[in-house]
Protein 1
Amino acid sequence: MVSYSASLAPSASTARTILVIEDEPSIADAIAARLRSEGYIVEIASDGPTGVLRCAETQPDAVVLDLMLPGIDGLEVCERIQADRPVPVLMLTARDSEQDLLVGLGVGADDYMTKPFSSRELVARVHALLRRVERSRLDGTATKPREPISVADIDIDPTTRRVHQRGEDVHLTPTEFDLVLFLAETPGAVYTREDLLEQVWGYAVASGLRTVDSHIRALRRKLGNDLIRTVHGVGYAIEEAA
Amino acid sequence: MKRLPPRPHVPDRPLDAVTSIKVKLATLIVGAVGITVFVFWFCIRILHIWPSAAGIIAGAVALLMVSRLARGMTSPLREMAAATQAMTKGDYSQTITATSHDEVGRLAAAFNQMAAELAETDRVRRDLVANVSHELRTPLTSLQATLENLIDGVAPADPRTLQTMLHQVERLGRLVTQLLDLSRLEAGTMPLDRHPFAIEPLLAHAVREQQLTDSGIAIEVDVEDHDLVADGDPERVHQVVANLLENAVRHSPHGGSVQVRARRTADSVTIEVLDEGPGITPGDADRVFERFYRADSARAASDGGAGLGLAIARWIVDLHGGDIHPEPRDPHGCRMVVTLPGAHSLPRRPQEITQ
């Protein structure tokens, strides 16, 4: 049985808009019906170019995006909609090989689900994505700015949400930033993948554990292998002096 | 075909050019005896060494020479034993150094070829599993999401929703049927029931079936000779025509039309299915017959085709000894041309024609 760590209801009183980009009409309709029943406004686009266009028009709060699309594929759609402004993206994929996954994360998808998936879980993940965006927005506008953190050779600024490594700016996706910030706040502390899923993603579902591993791998690719240590059988930790 | 890795350094193999293992062994024996006798004679007569010591020297020289000449005669056999072991674990990459021209060399070459073919079969099997699971995911996702909605009261169980689900189940069913057909065709367990049959009623029947799907695409049948009779398995030929019609209708633009033509060409029957769709580019002309290949990979996701229809059609046509290929149409569209050998010139009375 799946257990979700937080309330399923959207936190804001105003309705949020979700854009669903999926070319199989029956899947798009089912997802849309489910999201509408949770109080979201749902827009549907059935191919890549339309998806990019609708995203610019409707300014959605989150995007559910199929990886295999006619016209231009999901990865490119993800890149284009992220180029305009940061928007959380939940990627749907029919291929579950790790490589596709990492490429997906590289272009800024914040979470992914492999087909066939449960639409109940999809809704929970959309909620979690939106809560995370809400939280980071609060961080950004907090009256008391949070202190920058320096650990090993990286500097993390929670206010501007920027990461520098040896003075160089490193581009991280919102999820990657949240993950590295969470680990860096308590250097040396070891967190299990379940902890990280609950604290950073905001949900605890067994099928999400691979999401944590992939994001750790993406972080290592960008920040080097030495920063984040794997504690075998337990989880992950950031080392003070890498 | 897998590319073979570069050959490792081959030590000098003096008898490689000999084409028979019998001649090789004879050469070795004669050579060994000859050298022994010569060295023995040389030691005793010229060097005046004791006969027992001369015997030992002669034996040693002969052994050295044999081991030198026999180099490379048995190593392919040992390599083959090692490679077979590796194959049982799924590693087909090991190749045998086959430089000799005798039976062992030919065996090693055949072994390498077999290994390459096994590796190819293995790759095709893996691809098939990956493709099949991909084809299963979309209808399953749709069914799961819709069923969850019904159970949780998110969507009503109205006829439209149920129809969508039925459509997905039919899609899964069609995929299973096509996979079984293809597997039977490839295994050769679906023998042809060949006899003369009339072309026109077969085409008309296939068109009627296709029109039941209510696609809104007009289909015209044009048969030059109403008594045209072909030789083959009518049930399988019907399957070919049905698959081609399904493709043609699926790729037709809204309000487009599809034509089916049949005519005699020399000793064969040519059936053509023409559509006004986007057509097949010359680069795709061969690949469209591969299992799960689609000209536009994402396009077919929602239109129901799994990419098996043309693979099945080609198998059937090949079994008949015929030919199938696409041709471009001007300005756009596709003309699928099927040629079946064995046309009959004699007009037959309808009751003689079995269909």
Protein 2
Amino acid sequence: MPSISDYVPIIGQSTIDELFLLAERLKGKAIQNINSTSVGGGVAEILTRMIPLLKQLGIDARWDVIKGNEKFFGITKNVHNALHGVNIQIPPEDLEYFLQVNNENAAEINFYGDILFIHDPQPIALIEKKKDIARKWIWRCHIDFTDPSPDIMNFLKLYIEKYDCAVFSAPAFSRDICIPQMLISPSIDPLSDKNKELPEETIRTILERFGIDKERPIVTQISRFDYLKDPLGVIEAYKKVKKYVDCQLVLAGGGATDDPEGLKVLEEAKSMASGDPDIHVIFLPPASDIEINALQRASTVVLQKSLKEGFGLTVAEALWKAKPVIASAVGGIPLQIAHGYSGILTYSIDGTAYYLKQLINEPEYAKKLGLNGKEHIKNNFLVTRHIQDYLLLFLSLYHEGDVIHL
Amino acid sequence: MNTPFHFHTQFHLVTLLGLKAKNSIELLDGIKKVPPSSIYYHTHRFLQQHHYLSPEPPNDFAYWLTNILNLKRLGEAFASVDTVSFANMEELRSDFIKILTEYISEGRYVAECQAGEEFHFMACKTFVLPMPYVAHNLREFAEILDKISIDSLYFHMFEAPRRLGRQENDFSMWFKSIGENELAKRVSGYDPYTMTLESLRQRTVGTVRRYAKY
């Protein structure tokens, strides 16, 4: 694990000094994070990196995970999809079961935090405990809330409005709710295995292991196998490009323990890719961060053709490596890419194919997009900025007004 | 004995207001309704988020009108509002309302943005924090200014005069208090909205060094 001082060469000493000054104002407050999985997915990843850094700043930050069985996670996956606007009816008995599992967890969890920081919908009903124990409660929504199905939104609203505040990742996710709403973008860690610099030798070895040719253009999408990431649309875009430009496609990703749908999507992607040896569908086990890093660094162009996206951390990861990125204009992706300046935003498979041809054929333009993108990520989407926002969020619970003198 | 200068810094936590606009009429409604901290946020956000870029997009309203609604003339009118000449956010708000009202009263076609490209009104909570840096003379002042974070510079040059109701920027006020009136006047004369924060820092440090006694 890196030390907080390891970030000085990247963001400067003065920014680190300011984090310590803010953290001092939170002395004696325990921050208890609660989510539904300890591995896989963006939330677990951010918490894994952030908790140790918060501790180094002197913050008593800890992390607990709720328990749930396959049935519970099947229901929460449906809730997740419905929030992303997918037309799914969730029967009342499923919502009952969802609440029952939340109640069981609420009875078992030791609520030691002064601030209860609850992540995503899975543990949202733990808020019912507030009437017994008070404290400060924050609901952190990491998912795309642009167009939630009204039924599920109304159900969740009953719980969201009991929190002291809600946090969203993009302005479009803001809802008509009666509690304060904050905007905090997630972040990447430049020193993690997924993002740190890698020796050429490591990259070469990993490409060889997966049978990828380093000498020809490599187009990559890194993401969980999930319909909302549109891996099948990526293959279709690649096939349109392949008619004119020789290139390889890498679709690589793992699955989160709270996502039972992943294997089905993986099989469909494999079947669509069969017969083309230049399509590499790679299922990565957990702890494949070096592999992901190497695949991104080896790429000519990185895609993120999601249909819905909470934030799209893989975009920030690729931009941090100064890679040209073509991504859908959904969720938090437009916050990371200004079209034609720090990457390309697209709305369709055809659009993705068109720009992909352009970027492979115009490497100088592609390079410029990647360099601008890296600068933007450095200034706005690194973990140190994220930590600063969280410290301010915690402090905001104890201070009223627009201008607060600490 | 001169009063020393105590450096502060500031941070913003962005709040979402759950209010959006898809055309110039809704933008006007929103500008009328939102709290002053929202006007402040949308006219100052770019300074910090893109402080490495120059020239800067001047404010969120101008950016959205120009790049999303493609209303270039109106966007330019918003961009060229002389932010530095307004004493507070209410005066600035009135100017935006005047520009938009005039534009709408001309009865042109009301352009609407695509779904997903609406203007989302936001605001911010500002946290002000003392730093452990104190300058007793211009020499010390220049040394500290050279190394403090860009947020600290931002606080003294933008936040203090615009949101805390002070007459001018903190640096000039202190220069006057130690009898450096000419230096105060020079720094007050900058239009800090038309340069990057890093250029502003370098220019201020350079000017202060010329007046410092070594």
